Amino acid sequence: MTAAQIADALSEEDLERHFEQVIARDQRIEPRDWMPEGYRNTMIRQIAQHAHSEIIGMQPEGNWITRAPSLRRKAILLAKVQDEAGHGLYLYSAAETLGTDRTDLTERLITGRQKYSSIFNYPTLSFADVGVIGWLVDGAAICNQVPLCRSSYGPYARAMIRICKEESFHQRQGYELLMTMMKGTAEQRELVQDAVNRWWWPSLMMFGPPDADSPNTARSMAWKIKRHTNDELRQRFVDMTVPQAEALGVGLPDPELKWNPARGHYDFGEIDWAEFKRVVSGDGPCNAERVAHRARTHSEGAWVREAAAAHAAKQRKEAEAA
Ligand code: BYC
């Protein structure tokens, strides 16, 4: 009996029970396993948003490739931006195992029907922003993504292992760049401080709305898609980053940031959730520019997709003839 025949012979309740047991045993759900529609849709939503974030996330740093201050910095930045493209591709492939099509997902992105991370709607005003994105944005991404290596959907969890290795390298390159600038001139130190002031709060918003306003967390935790809540990961990021800021010699723009010995964590000020909502709903400083650029490059790449499809069709025909 094939897996499909066994699945046909089982009732919906049997399948659901088996799915719940796999989750309870901390095993992985694989593409051909039965899964509830809600689980499938949640996975498609999260993986697609994640893939879109990687691809749109190439733009803010890509802005500095032609103006990197040395050949070494240019080579590093080029490699990093190419890594983000690779992450997007693994993730679109993972989403396709759930029965979606990446062309359709891209259409949804450029028509505003699917989201991408709010962080990429802010401009990169100086080369220090490249370092701060590596340190804070990749740092926040690692905090959020390391637990996703244990996510219950197999292809997503496996993609995340490689992505996290590369993200941690990105984070270190950002920190190293900032260390270099902080040892430079007063003007370079000012550029770093200005970039930190602009990126700190948006980095905290990357973790999503507060738990009380997060409609998806409870369900995603029960399905072990998410392993920690948004607020837990945000706190972990703050606790990890404050000592790094001290070592670097930069201030963080929050007068309420203070170690709380009773909690064993840093307290921090209130995030501007109105700004978060504005940016997520399309009205951030660079939303229109980011999506327009993606739409343009997608249409400019149409001939490549057509050529690849024609080549694949030719190879299929030749294989059939042989
Ligand atoms: N921005 O119920 P919630 C990178 C949405 S790229 C925009 O808490 P969930 C990098 C959320 O999707 C790394 N939207 O949702 C690349 C939901 O929307 P819908 C990107 C946000 O899913 C290049 C609604 O708000 N990382 O590292 O349980 C260069 C309610 O939220 C945001 C990922 O994608 C946001 N910040 O939790 C450098 C990580 N936050 O569809 C670096 C994977 C929330 O229900 N994703 N929303 O209307 C996740 O871990 C989770 O999806 C989230 C949100 C923690 C982000």
> In one word, what is the shape?
globular
| Total tally of structural domains | 1
The overall pLDDT average reads 96
Structural class of the secondary structure composition?
Answer: mainly alpha
Number of strands: 2
Bound molecules: benzoyl coenzyme A
Strand order of the biggest β-sheet: 1-2
Q: Major sheet: size, sense and barrel closure? A: 2 strands, antiparallel
**Tally of alpha and pi helices:** 14
The CATH topology name reads Ferritin
**Can you give the helix content as a percent range?**
55-70%
N- to C-terminal distance? 32 Å
Residue share in β-strands: under 5%
CATH class call: Mainly Alpha
CATH architecture classification name:
Up-down Bundle
Order of helices and strands: HHHHHHHHHHHEEHHH
Cα-atom radius of gyration:
22 Å
Uncertain runs are none
What is the name of the CATH superfamily?
Answer: Ferritin, core subunit, four-helix bundle
Protein name: 1,2-phenylacetyl-CoA epoxidase subunit A
GO biological process, one term: phenylacetate catabolic process
InterPro entries: Aromatic_CoA_ox/epox, Ferritin-like, Ferritin-like_SF, PaaA, PaaA_PaaC
EC number: 1.14.13.149
